[in-house]
Amino acid sequence: MQIFTWHDIERKIEKTKWPKSWNRVDVYHDEIVINICPEIHDPEEDKQLFRSIFEKLFDGESIQIEFDQTKLYIIYEDGDEADRFRRADAPLFKDISLENKAESKIPKLPGVPVIAFHSYKGGVGRTLSLTALAKGIAKRYGDQKKVLIIDSDLEAPGLTWMINGSQENAAVSYLDVLSLMHFHDINAELAEKIAGLIRKSSLTIETEKLETEHYFLPVYREKEQLLDIFSSPEKIIANQNNKYIISEFLSMIGAALEADIVLVDLRAGVTEFSAPFLFDPRVQKYFVTSTSMQSIKGTQMLLKEIQQKTSGNLWESKILLTMIPPEMEENTIRQIEDELLEAVEREIDSKDSTMLREDYLLRIRFDSPFISLGDFSQICSVLKGKRLLEIMEENAESIFENGQETDGAILPLQEVRETLQSLNSLAAAEVTAEGTKSLNMLATASIREIIKDYQDEVPQIAVLGEKGSGKTYLFKHMLEAKTWAGFQRKLKKEDVEESRETLILPLISTINTKYIHPLAVECIQNANHVFGEAFFDEHSVNKNHKEILSYLDEEHSLAEWTQKWTDLICGMTDIFSVLMQADEYLEERKKRLLFVADGLEDLFMDAQVQKKEGWKYAVKSLCQNVINEMRNLKYGNVGMIVFIRSDMAAEAIGVNFEQFKNQYFRYELNWSPTEALRLAVWIAAQVNPRFAENIDILKASREALEERLELLWGKKLGKNSSRETESSRWIIAALSDFNGHLQARDIVRFLKFSTVNLPGPASEYLDRFILPAEIRKAIPECSKEKLTEIKMEMRSIYQILERLMNMPEEDKRLPLLLDKLNLTGEEIAKLENQGFLVSSDKKYYLPEIIRTALGFRYEKGARPKVLSLLRG
Predict the structure, then answer these.
(1) Cβ proximity of 244 and 114 under 8 Å
(2) CA-CA 20 to 30 A from 456: which of 245, 379, 675, 721?
């Protein structure tokens, strides 16, 4: 018997067959009034009925409420059949809304955090997502964290059905809690009493390592509760004179249970049973929607209502976009996200937050095993190994981290200042490839592949890379090493044995750095020293540069360009005139030669701007024909490494570029986000050994690198407990183009600008070296130098960007409409290919790395959108 309020007595009486003498029964908080026909009334019949219904709770004169021992006395009043009637059983589903913005300062929830899962319509994975979060908490924290799960979905109580099945044996239900709130003062004593009953309804969540016990509050104890709902949130709020009383009391119950968090599965739609949670800014919300138009439109409307009527902190919510079809294109998904997130991103942008879209929007792809689900334990089993569980496990960690201060140990201020000064000096020296202060060389994956494939052979390859990807940096280190074995030693930090000495000789080099020329001369002098005489012309690099420019003035075939390159190679010495002779001569001397070529973009820049076609034959012949000719040599003693920008090679080689690229894809200098972070750790470790502690920089995963970089620039762009985005992800996004590319130079440049200003003793961030404010300030400075770099190295692209820079100030706002863009289709395509422009929903955006230098501002709500397009 569970009698918590007078309403339970009323419901039990009304579902019972009454004696014929009864006309009407009115149940109040302190009495039961029965209207009877006195001429046929039999008091003993009444007593037998009450004993059969209420057993020992009926004492002959009153019925006792079991929960608090209150007695309701039975009173009779005379009447007749004209008084006879029954009330209809009908649930109440009334919407409630708040007229004004919620108070800006509301006290924290009195107990533990509350998270509510809501969807505009059913069948989109809301309950499944809540279950995944519960299991994610159990998987991540084991029995260290307890969860109270509440099913408040009166229309489709999925959790109640999945967990309790057909049994109606719960000690207390959510509807009971609402009734108790209606008729009792809300206090810790009431919360403790209810918690004692909930403890009887434990819930087991099994992980790979152990079974964890949690708590569950079903929506009902018995089905009749669903058919006669009396205590609605609307009535409770009015009675308690506190519109947030429901979420507050559930928080108190969670604390009484010694749970760590309360998860509430809300009813779909905006009703009186979901509104108190949706409009309470202290309750974190998970809005779940599929990609269907009805679900998207409804969720968008709901988000706008919350944003307009309350200080609902939508930016602290999570939006789960579920059931994404595998065939749905990325652009379509982004259009759905743009429509869905308009209200959220307006609020985020108004706070000038550094959040990324992935901080508040989670994509869940369609997964067929979730179509038909069984009970709770079966669902937990199906979740194993699924992406949904991975996402929710990551969220579980952020939920508990955001609720507490977890900032690291305080660093000595003197060490911080000295490290930043040294880091600034090193980054300033290394920001261009001519830097000379590097202590050693970072071995990226592509470099390691070259070394592995050519340990004791001379390479005959092309190394592709975007601008600033480190081509000249590698070229410089090869010249410094002077031999192939020396280069490998710089990489491996160990002795390298080779069957015969391989000497490095520069064929062509960049003219934009004064440090390269002395290295080239020293490299040639070393070769002459090894051979014992002046075989090679020390000025051959400059002569080759002039020869190519002169040859470019006339039209030549591909075969003629191939011959020109081989003539230049052989012309560096008077010993041989063709490659075959060189190969044979070197075989006699037990030597090898590795020619290296860099700076082709400088060499052919004017020809590209003037739209001459000859440069394409020059590039194609060197990268393909000359290398192929070397591969056909009998002894393989002559090699070549051509460092070339990817877009230049693609334009020169044409239709066969993909085949060419695939041939060398393992050697491509592609700075992925992971490699960029690896470079940041490596540079930091050059100036402070702290950054190299407990990590193998060359082999570390992205997660391990991000963890190590928390020491450098913090876990987040704010306190670790803040809602700001993670520093590493934001920095990578801000430095990348829309192709997801960033260069080694970008990372080094960022380190230079972010370490200019040193913190003082009053700094609130003494758990890291680089402060959040310095990170934000560094991006515009990086943008300025990026644009200068494009002007120097990509003149044809700069000419297009310059037109954007010279637009009227009032038009320089993102997103740009096509009529404001004022570029030709060919020019738009060029910028898009470079990752400097992207179109989304017929609107154009610029990446952060060039936006500020071009002088563009954001329309409200556009900033998070751009950063989401840049996420790496």
Answers:
(1) no
(2) 675
